[in-house]
Design goal:
This protein is mainly α and about 170 residues long. It contains nine helices and no strands.
């Protein structure tokens, strides 16, 4: 697998691949915890409900860099995450895990890479972000998800954005 392989993949397909990488990482590094709440937020980005930007903003509130920025819920002034969700995620995630933070952040970054603008053809900026995740997983010796899982999400659909993706059959966690 190389960067060129991703040139034909839709933005939503690339987000899905990053989510699959996130799943691979958490299954390895957090095998003692159920991180399904985080992964549901991530998969919501590419799902059929709502808009990609709104779902990405919702997910962003779970990224450790933002989740642990403030000591309490009131100070965080979160738009989407409830107090219970805030407490739950803070109990599940490790604020010092820079790999988790990077991989989670790249899911958001790929989703928002072309927000409010046209998608480049080929989508080099998004592909570079995906490969930040790929490189990170390789560095830690974590098995990459099978590229064939996203091969069918074509860049030719919906101006490069692609079709919404149901995690059923893709996700290893949900």
């Amino acid at each position: 697998m190389n960067k060129r392989d991703f040139y034909g993949i839709s933005v939503l397909g690339m987000v899905a691949y990053c989510i699959l990488c996130l799943e691979s990482y958490v299954l390895e590094a957090y095998d003692d915890r159920d991180l399904a709440p985080v992964l549901r937020l991530a998969w919501g980005i590419v799902g059929p409900e709502g808009y990609i930007d709104e779902n990405a903003y919702r997910y962003m509130e779970a990224i450790p860099e933002y989740l642990f920025e403030f000591d309490d819920y009131e100070a965080a002034e979160l738009e989407y995450l409830t107090r219970d969700g805030f407490d739950e995620l803070r109990g599940l995630l490790d604020p010092s895990d820079q790999t988790l933070n990077l991989v989670m952040h790249r899911v958001y970054d790929v989703a928002m890479c072309y927000a409010y603008t046209a998608v480049e053809n080929p989508p080099r900026e998004a592909v570079d972000l995906v490969f930040d995740v790929v490189s990170c997983l390789r560095k830690h010796g974590i098995q990459l998800p099978d590229f064939d899982l996203v091969r069918g999400f074509s860049f030719s659909e919906f101006h490069g954005w692609g079709v919404h993706i149901n995690p059923e059959g893709l996700s290893m966690v949900l």
